[in-house]
Design goal:
The structure is a single chain. α6 links the parallel β6 and β7. This protein is elongated. It contains ten helices and twelve strands. The protein folds into two domains: 178 residues, Rossmann fold, CATH 3.40.50; 144 residues, Response regulator (Rossmann fold). It is 42% helix and 16% strand. The protein has 339 residues and is an alpha/beta fold. Bound molecules: beta-D-glucopyranose (BGC) and calcium ion (CA). The site of beta-D-glucopyranose has 14 residues, from α2.
Length: 339
């Protein structure tokens, strides 16, 4: 009896101390992270973010599980439920639908688990303030469009022959990413705005969006545009990401047409297209640092620390509780330093 009492007493003394690490910690004491990618089909998410999540988790000694949400928000909701049942210490979530953050935040809040959203910023107003343990890691979406736009305007001004019909305006086609995705919306808006801001009229000949930002979409749309009634009028191809740009390049090559063409992400294949003169520029979307920031914040949050403690990240001062990794212009002049 005395022994049982002593054991119970000892347990009572130990438990509060280990309480900080409660949850799904494995026996060896590692912090467990439940994470997802909205779709493993996405060039940038699967080719840049995921490998660095895997690598950096190992460096930090985190137990990381990354699942594929296959482009379905309902699937992600279920995956989050499973992570919570398993007792993960922290969630790192790439929303499928940027307008559905509240459902995920509510689940995390109910379970008392910290949540790091990454890559797709929540679009519901004020939703980040409904839970004290939710943060966002991504970029300033507008910045990518502004940089892409500035690059295009500078090149347009330097190449008088790009104005094929000599009307002083740029006739462009635009491959857009997921409608409603803050990156797609901002890139579409600001890339074109750069022309009009510079006093160059911009005529949109066509715009097609793809929720999957895919190479297939870029190929199919570009091929269709080239054989359409305005096929010969196209002077410039604007792509919200490199994945779609690769498809457009395929279609252009197949039709034996060369047009100025720009992307975003700076995937290694894009750098090669720049080297080969098939692409005029892209914008580095620094997925490596976004993955690192996501896990740095996740680890700190799981340990009950201030999320940026011991890191070089800073939270935006605009109340969005976000770490925003900067974009960088990648041109034929500087692309080698990104290889
Ligand atoms: C990237 C795209 C990607 C999308 C996925 C964007 O930031 O630039 O390539 O498809 O995120 O959410
Ligand atoms: Ca023109």
């Amino acid at each position: 009896m005395k022994k049982i009492l002593l054991t119970a007493l000892a347990l009572m003394m130990i438990l509060p101390l280990t309480g900080v690490f409660a949850g799904g910690q494995t026996e060896d004491g590692a912090i467990t992270v439940g994470a997802n990618i909205y779709s493993f089909q996405d060039n940038f998410m699967n080719g840049v973010i995921k490998p660095e999540l895997d690598r950096y988790a190992e460096e930090l000694g985190l137990e990381l599980d990354v699942v594929d949400s296959e482009g379905q928000q309902a699937k992600l909701n279920d995956q989050v439920d499973i992570f919570i049942t398993k007792g993960v210490d922290v969630l790192a979530i790439n929303l499928v639908d940027p307008a559905s953050a509240s459902s995920i935040i509510e689940k995390a809040k109910k379970a008392g688990i910290p949540l790091i959203l990454f890559n797709k910023e929540a679009t519901e107003a004020g939703v980040m303030n409904t839970y004290d343990k939710v943060w966002y890691v991504g970029t300033n979406s507008a910045e990518s469009g502004i940089i892409q736009g500035e690059m295009m305007v500078a090149d347009w001004k330097a190449n008088a022959d790009w104005d094929r019909n000599g009307d002083g305006a740029v006739q462009y086609v635009l491959l857009k990413g997921e409608p409603g995705h803050p990156d797609a919306e901002a890139r579409t808006k600001y890339s074109v705005k750069a022309f009009t801001d510079a006093g160059i009229p911009a005529d949109q000949l066509a715009l097609e969006a793809d929720p999957n930002w895919s190479t297939t979409h870029g190929n199919d749309k570009m091929a269709a545009w080239l054989t359409s009634g305005f096929g010969n009028d196209i002077e410039l191809v604007i792509c919200n990401n490199d994945g779609m740009a690769f498809g457009a390049i395929n279609a252009l090559k197949a039709a034996n047409v060369q047009l100025p063409l720009y992307g975003v992400d700076a995937l290694s294949q894009a750098l090669q297209h720049i080297a080969d003169g098939e692409m005029n520029g892209t914008v580095l979307n620094d997925g490596v640092n976004q993955a690192r920031a996501t896990l740095d914040l996740a680890k700190n949050a799981a340990m009950g620390k201030t999320v940026t403690e011991g890191t070089n990240w800073t939270l935006d001062t605009d109340g969005t509780k976000a770490v925003r990794v900067p974009y960088v212009a990648v041109t034929p002049e500087n692309y080698k330093s990104f290889q």
